[in-house]
Design brief:
Layout: H1 5-37, H2 43-55, H3 64-71, H4 81-101, H5 107-123, H6 130-161, H7 167-207, H8 219-235, H9 238-247, H10 253-273, H11 279-294, H12 301-330
Helix pairs in contact: 1-2, 1-4, 1-7, 1-8, 1-9, 1-11, 2-7, 2-8, 3-7, 4-5, 4-12, 5-12, 6-10, 6-11, 7-8, 7-10, 10-11
Length: about 325
């Protein structure tokens, strides 16, 4: 690596960490919307709670998701500075657009779309690692469905177990339990989303010859990514908190516990399986599940449908922006 290339490398790592920060900012709602909407925690305390568990997630999970992003989306052989720049610009731009609109979209799928758009712009469709991409695409459908079914099942079980409790007594129990479920969801969130940026930075480092040999995630990359995500969560994403926490359906502490726990189980399974999933999709499915358990009309389907539209737009939109950024970067190369 030449001395001139080093500032570019540092700049790209900084851009990747900015994406990670924005990921935490954008997806803070996924971790705290239910616990804030049920008034178990104030927004300020909730973001501190979520940010802490976002950061310590690396102590619990392996780096399987980072390996999927780093090696299983586009071929590592075609990765260079322009590809990484295009991918990050596609993901960051789409995150900012949906954040400004208050739409819960997937930072994960924005990043995958960005990688595909930039990779295809350089090397054509052959750049795509289809096994990894298809696994990610399948998760678009499966993660909200699994979250929904788990949350729905938990509502039914808890309704039976607590059938002799008064509403006030049940609320007291679940206001405490929601602290645990919110922590578990934030842990799963940090274990999945921060790893995507780890994969991006690591494949860039290997492509530039900074590291050689077997692909591995350096500890400083792990700590930087977990820290950037936790910092982003601290700043919150209040428009999306409002959409997730109250616009889809009104939640009680018991329902909030069921939604967070169903979502957390889904994320834990994805983390151990190395599947990059959308925390947004997962918690939305879980919230819809607890709302539908009460009655179908309790879910504001018009809001839920607008969120689903944003999901399906994310991959192609981020890919198109990334492709444009890739070609634009060529003029300054």
């Amino acid at each position: 690596m030449t001395i001139l290339a080093m500032p570019l490398l540092i700049g790209l790592i900084g851009l990747a960490l900015l994406f990670d920060f924005l990921n935490g900012l954008h997806d803070a709602a996924n971790s705290i919307a239910t616990v804030v909407s049920t008034r178990v925690l104030s927004p300020q305390v909730a973001v501190l709670w979520a940010a802490f568990f976002n950061f310590v997630a690396f102590l619990v999970f392996s780096h399987a998701v980072a390996y999927t992003i780093g090696k299983g989306t586009i071929s590592p052989d075609i990765v260079d500075a322009r590809v990484i720049f295009g991918a990050l610009m596609g993901a960051i731009s789409w995150n900012l657009i949906t954040w400004a609109l208050g739409l819960p979209s997937s930072s994960s799928h924005a990043l995958v779309g960005g990688l595909i758009g930039a990779g295809v712009s350089k090397a054509g469709v052959a750049a795509i690692v289809w096994s990894g991409v298809l696994k990610t695409v399948a998760a678009i459908f499966l993660s909200p469905l699994i979250g929904l079914l788990l949350a729905l099942f938990m509502v039914l079980v808890i309704s039976w177990l607590f059938r002799r409790f008064t509403p006030a007594g049940s609320d007291r129990v679940f206001r405490r339990l929601q602290l645990v479920s919110a922590a578990a969801y934030s842990l799963g969130h940090g274990g999945n989303d921060a790893q995507k940026t780890m994969g991006i930075i690591t494949v860039l480092l290997f492509s530039q010859g900074i590291y050689q040999g077997e692909f591995h995630i350096p500890l400083w990359v792990v700590l930087s990514c977990q820290g950037a995500m936790g910092l982003g969560t601290l700043f919150g994403g209040w428009k999306i908190v409002h959409t997730m926490g109250s616009k889809i359906t009104r939640l009680t502490p018991a329902q909030g516990f069921c939604a967070e726990t169903g979502g957390a189980i889904t994320l834990f399974l994805a983390n151990f399986g190395g599947i990059p999933v959308s925390t947004t999709h997962t918690i939305t499915g879980a919230i819809v599940g607890v709302g539908a358990a009460k009655r179908v009309s309790a879910v504001r389907w018009s809001v839920a449908s607008s969120i689903v539209v944003a999901w399906f737009l994310t991959l192609p939109a981020a890919a198109l922006i990334a492709s444009a950024a890739y070609f634009l970067a060529g003029f300054f190369a």
